[in-house]
Write a structure and sequence with these properties.
The protein is an all-alpha fold. 47% of the residues lie in helices and 0% in strands.
Length: 104
Amino acid sequence: MCVFASRRDVLLSLSRRPRLAALYAEVERKRGDSFCAGWRIADLIRHAEVCGGPDPGVVCADDGPEFTALEQQVRAALEKAPRKKPELARNSGCALCDGCAARS
């Protein structure tokens, strides 16, 4: 997942690495950050569930000890105070398509 990727590519990444996507959404929820300006991972996950997304092809299970260690490190970091004011990263933009049922 890359903040410079197109929405389609981010949707593809979400479907290929669902556990990583959930971790990004957890960070957003706890910190109030958005993945990038106008795009929240949580909104993109919801969009993919409701409207569908690109065929992922290969799905990475992310069930190894390395990913579990990453999760633990991220959650430990989330227990600390943020390094920047969360309101600096907040954005009310929406990455969903016009008229998408996931908006409601």
